[in-house]
From TrEMBL:
Any coiled-coil regions, as ranges: none
Protein family: Belongs to the CCC1 family.
GO molecular function, one term: iron ion sequestering activity
Catalytic activity: Fe(2+)(in) = Fe(2+)(out)
Record keywords, A-Z: Ion transport, Iron, Iron transport, Membrane, Transmembrane, Transmembrane helix, Transport, Vacuole
Record lineage: Eukaryota, Viridiplantae, Streptophyta, Embryophyta, Tracheophyta
Domain of life, per lineage: Eukaryota
Protein task: Vacuolar Fe(2+) uptake transporter.
Compartments (UniProt record): Vacuole membrane
Name recorded for this polypeptide: Vacuolar iron transporter
Chief site of localization: membrane
Record membrane topology: Multi-pass membrane protein
Length: 209
């Protein structure tokens, strides 16, 4: 509100109500941001690692792509179910607490209900994000015939996507971009390297598909 000067005639001085600018609470993004960023990173890293693992023992483009899609479907369903159950449990707790606090105040209870977590929304966001991340290494490998080049392209595409996801998550959450990118990048590289190495070891020991 703009204050009115008492020395000015009342006809010329009217209090003007101006909407106060409310600083955006970035914690409000935590639910969907967590589901989206973690889902995309999980999809990207797990499917890329899975494809690198199969590529360590089998020189077959079709097998690598099929493994990638199987992992995408299984992972998206797993992420959706896990997120739904987790958020629904959180919802039950918050609803019970809300009933205890707002027994005699219906207006406040209705307002608080609007801020309750949505299990279905969280599940869908998690599954979609996982699928978007998982499709990156699959598309990267789909059109490359040479086995060695295909593995290199998967690593390169995954690296680029990890940097992008890490950067987007940091910007939306107002955290340090460099640290976020480095964290997801190193984690992704480690996952692919460990999966490739251990699968290669199993293959060399005589275990074949």
């Amino acid at each position: 509100m703009v204050p009115c000067n008492n020395n000015v005639d009342g006809n010329q001085c009217n209090a003007v109500n101006l909407p106060e600018e409310k600083e955006f609470d970035y914690s409000e993004r935590s639910q969907w941001l967590r589901a989206a960023v973690l889902g995309a990173n999980d999809g990207l890293v797990s499917i890329a690692s899975l494809m690198m693992g199969i590529g360590a023992v089998k020189d077959d483009t079709k097998a690598m792509i099929l493994i990638g899609f199987a992992g995408l479907f299984a992972g998206a369903c797993s992420m959706a179910i896990g997120e739904f159950v987790s958020v629904y449990s959180q919802l039950d707790i918050e609803v019970a607490q809300l009933k205890r606090e707002n027994t005699n105040n219906n207006n406040e209870e209705n307002a608080d209900k609007e801020r309750l977590p949505n299990p279905l929304q969280a599940a869908m966001a998690s599954a979609l994000a996982f699928s978007l991340g998982a499709i990156v290494p699959i598309l990267a490998a789909a059109f490359i015939n040479n086995h060695t080049v295909r593995l290199g392209v998967v690593v390169a595409a995954t690296t680029l996507a990890l940097v992008v996801f890490g950067g987007v998550g940091a910007v939306l959450g107002r955290s340090r971009v460099g640290r976020s990118c480095a964290r997801v990048l190193i984690g992704g590289w480690m996952a692919m390297a460990i999966t490739f190495g251990l699968t290669k070891l199993l293959g060399s020991s005589g275990l074949e598909m």
